[in-house]
Design brief:
141 residues; alpha+beta; HIT family, subunit A; 5-stranded antiparallel β-sheet; 5 strands; globular; binds guanosine-5'-monophosphate
Length: 141
């Protein structure tokens, strides 16, 4: 995997405002916050997108994410927040090293704005799609 700004942060070549670190996970403040307390949580493992991340690193992030969310809530004095993880440029990924954003949502206009163009799911479509997904998951285990 090519070096990214986040691998340089991990190696200490680029400074950051660190908020958490363990053997597998690192968290720091986003340099372009959408709201006060906007934090990035990354695996030390250099995977580009979430689907490429090992179970071990994914579990380590999952274990600590709620604790980091509680800290962000406390310090930003927000009860509402978004956790966002983008994969590839079409889905707004700019840095190709897996990262979870924790973004406080202080009010209607602050924090993350999202378009949510909800469609509909028929029962037949749902049955077919769920079966396809179950089978893909089984094949990947
Ligand atoms: P993405 O669009 O890839 O999900 O988000 C990348 C995030 O990384 C952006 O929110 C951006 O502000 C943040 N970012 C980019 N470069 C740096 C940097 O050098 N330091 C820090 N702390 N954050 C960065």
């Amino acid at each position: 995997m090519a070096e990214t700004i986040f691998t340089k942060i991990l190696s200490g070549d680029i400074p950051c405002h660190k908020v958490y670190e363990d053997d597998l996970v690192f968290a720091f403040l986003d340099i372009g916050p959408l709201s006060k307390g906007h934090t990035l949580v990354i695996p030390k493992e250099p995977a580009e997108t979430l689907d490429q991340l090992s179970d071990e690193s994914a579990a380590a992030i999952g274990r600590v994410l709620p604790r980091l969310c509680r800290a962000v809530m406390k310090v930003s004095a927000c009860t509402a927040y978004n956790v966002l993880e983008n994969n590839l440029p079409l889905a707004h990924q700019a840095v190709f090293h897996v990262h979870f954003h924790i973004i406080p949502k202080p009010n209607e206009n602050g924090g993350l704005g999202i378009k949510w163009p909800a469609g509909s799911l028929s029962s037949a479509e749902g049955t077919k799609l769920a079966a396809e997904l179950s089978s893909a998951i089984s094949a990947d285990s």
